Amino acid sequence: MRLGVPRRQAIRHAKSRKSYWNMAETIASGVGFTNAVLAEQGLLSLKHLWNELAPLRRTA
């Protein structure tokens, strides 16, 4: 809830018996784990890395 997830969604998320892979697509995960939050945690964006490295893949 500290990440901005509504209380009701947080409770539903915590009580779910689904696997972590299925829970990754829930509203609570989308609201709480934004790209900005993940960047603050030190995680790299694969999309950002791809955009930086894609021009280097040109063939001669």
Summarize the structure.
The protein has helices at 7-15, 20-23, 27-32, 35-40, 46-53.
Structural write-up:
By secondary structure, the chain is an all-alpha fold. It has one domain. Helix content is 55%, strand content 0%. It has helices spanning 7-15, 20-23, 27-32, 35-40, 46-53. The mean pLDDT is 80.
Question: Secondary structure elements and their pairing?
Answer:
Blueprint (H helix, E strand, L loop, with lengths): L6 H9 L4 H4 L3 H6 L2 H6 L5 H8 L7
Structural descriptors:
60 residues, mainly alpha, 0% strand
- Residue windows where pLDDT falls under 50 for at least 5 positions: none
Give the domain tally.
1
Strand content: under 5%
What is the succession of H and E elements?
A: HHHHH
Oligomer: single chain
- The gyration radius over C-alpha positions equals 16 Å
Principal-axis shape:
elongated
Please tell me the overall pLDDT. Answer: 80
